[in-house]
Amino acid sequence: MDFSKGIVAGGDSFKGQKWTILGQPYRPLHLTPSSLLMHAEFGPGSFVPTHVHETQDEILHILEGVMEFELEGRTINAGAGDTVSLPMGIAHALYNRSDALARALVVVSPTGRMYDYMIAISGLSDPAEVVRLGAEHEIQFV
């Protein structure tokens, strides 16, 4: 696997890749064994169901809009400029319950199988297949 070095110009992505994950666009920006950085857009009403990364921390820095997170029985709202830390082993879900687009930088560390997972699920429309592939890539949906 090639790793990031140098610059990714604004609006571009690592190796020109663009993924569509359950209808939402993601662009990888950085990739090493220790971290994966992605730009993600969450349209109004979109969500990522409750899941657990057993071997990875996940961090989202909200660039635009408002996101809602479910974490350990709590609901957290985060807006532009906020950073949300989701430690490994903690079940969490993400929602855009607003009428506006939300954008975020997403960091996963260590990368583990997340990069391969994003490639595998890009363009899939069957949630059951996304869940099945998650289990093969160290992500457990609850």
UniProtKB/TrEMBL annotation:
<dbReference type="InterPro" id="IPR011051">
    <property type="entry name" value="RmlC_Cupin_sf"/>
</dbReference>
<dbReference type="Pfam" id="PF07883">
    <property type="entry name" value="Cupin_2"/>
</dbReference>
<dbReference type="InterPro" id="IPR013096">
    <property type="entry name" value="Cupin_2"/>
</dbReference>
<dbReference type="InterPro" id="IPR014710">
    <property type="entry name" value="RmlC-like_jellyroll"/>
</dbReference>
<dbReference type="InterPro" id="IPR052538">
    <property type="entry name" value="Flavonoid_dioxygenase-like"/>
</dbReference>
<protein>
    <submittedName>
        <fullName>Quercetin dioxygenase-like cupin family protein</fullName>
    </submittedName>
</protein>
<feature type="domain" description="Cupin type-2">
    <location>
        <begin position="39"/>
        <end position="108"/>
    </location>
</feature>
